[in-house]
Design a protein that fits this description.
Blueprint (H helix, E strand, L loop, with lengths): L3 E6 L7 H14 L3 E5 L2 H6 L3 E4 L26 H13 L4 E6 L1 H12 L4 E5 L15 H21 L3 E6 L6 H10 L3 E3 L8 H13 L5 E6 L5 H12 L3 E5 L11 H19 L5 E6 L2 E6 H6 L6 H10 L2
Parallel strand pairs: 1-2, 1-4, 4-5, 5-10, 6-8, 6-9, 7-8
Antiparallel strand pairs: 2-3, 10-11
The structure holds 6-O-phosphono-beta-D-fructofuranose.
6-O-phosphono-beta-D-fructofuranose (F6P) binds next to loops.
Length: about 325
């Protein structure tokens, strides 16, 4: 039976979101469904910014960063009136289901819609990798690769000048981007929120000790959830006499051409969402678990709390020895 399926991207954009949208459109059309693209996330949904998508609507987008549907963080949608407004728009457009591509906050929004009887499917799209129900979130690989390239450039100049460099990467309250950047970028010290507040004195001692051991440069990766990057740089320089520079990578990590990993997982997850809707299965989050694309009930998915990978953290420390 042909269904009307809405799709939106919400929260912070992530490279690979376009691959997801493309898969939803093309796989949905191939099964005879009608696809409605909602612009600007929940904000656009409340304002009925909706257009039917055809195959050509997603031509040439798989390699593009950002999201062709655009995104927003909507305060109004977080109110009861906002949710009801969205419900009315969904009904007025005769949508049988709405696919939400985004992070935790976006899924909480989807859960509110589900409570009002709307059929929803969530697809994890965030560079932060902070959603527990899935081993992968679209955008993470591209963000890590972008950050790693930037970190390598900082290492070059740091080595030339025998400096200590502190690089802050994104991740909101999660340390995954930082941990992966540390291992792939060869950091001496990794500071992530999951490990609590860092002790500046210990860090300065370690930097001094590393220099005595003959290290040419010092690279410290700080997760956004720790912050205090400029303060730490000043402290280390004052304590050790080693010139220390801080760099906050910021939004460059959110843009750029998605890697193959993001395009493949994005395409597979988009297709999985269509399969679920096709079989009448709703209110699920699509996830990657142990190499398989699976789906988890939305409340269950939102109740899980992601911890850091302890083994990776241990290895990151050992590699800095
Ligand atoms: O969730 C993705 C992310 O880039 C986080 O890493 C960061 O904390 C946040 O979004 C920034 O949000 P905004 O785009 O609203 O400034």
């Amino acid at each position: 039976m042909s269904k009307v399926i809405g799709v939106l991207t919400s929260g912070g954009d992530a490279p690979g979101m376009n691959a997801v949208v493309r898969a939803i459109v093309r796989c949905g059309l191939s099964k005879g469904h009608k696809i409605l693209g909602v612009d600007r996330g929940y904000e656009g949904l409340m304002n009925n910014e909706i257009e039917e998508m055809k195959s050509h609507s997603v031509s040439d987008v798989i390699g593009r960063g950002g999201t062709i549907l655009q995104s927003a963080r909507s305060k109004q949608f977080m109110t009861e009136e906002g949710v009801m407004q969205a419900v009315n728009v969904i009904k007025a457009n005769s949508m049988d289901a709405l696919i939400v591509i985004g992070g935790d906050g976006s899924f909480k929004g989807a859960r509110e819609l589900a409570k009002k009887g709307i059929n929803v499917i969530g697809i994890p799209g965030t560079i932060d990798l902070d959603i527990d129900c899935t081993d992968y979130t679209i955008g993470f690989d591209t963000a890590v690769n972008t950050a790693m390239e930037a970190i390598e450039k900082i290492r070059d100049t740091s080595s030339s000048h025998n400096r200590c460099s502190i690089v802050e990467v994104m991740g909101r309250n999660a340390g995954y981007i930082a941990l992966w950047c540390s291992i792939s970028g060869g950091a001496e010290i990794t500071l992530i929120p999951e490990k609590g507040e860092p002790d500046f004195k210990d860090i300065a001692n370690q930097v001094a000790e590393n220099k005595n051991m003959g290290k040419k440069h010092e690279l410290i990766i700080v997760a956004e959830g720790i912050g205090k990057t400029a303060e730490l740089a000043e402290y280390i320089e004052n304590e050790t006499g080693i010139t220390t520079r801080a760099t906050i990578l910021g939004y460059l990590q959110r843009g750029g051409r998605p890697t193959a990993i993001d395009r493949i997982h994005g395409s597979m997850m988009g297709s999985k969402a269509i399969d679920l809707i096709d079989s009448g299965v709703y209110n699920r989050i699509v996830a990657l678990k142990n190499g398989d694309y699976v789906d988890i009930e939305i409340n269950e998915a939102l109740n899980m709390k992601k911890d850091i990978n302890e083994e990776m953290y241990r290895v990151a420390k050992a590699l800095a020895y």
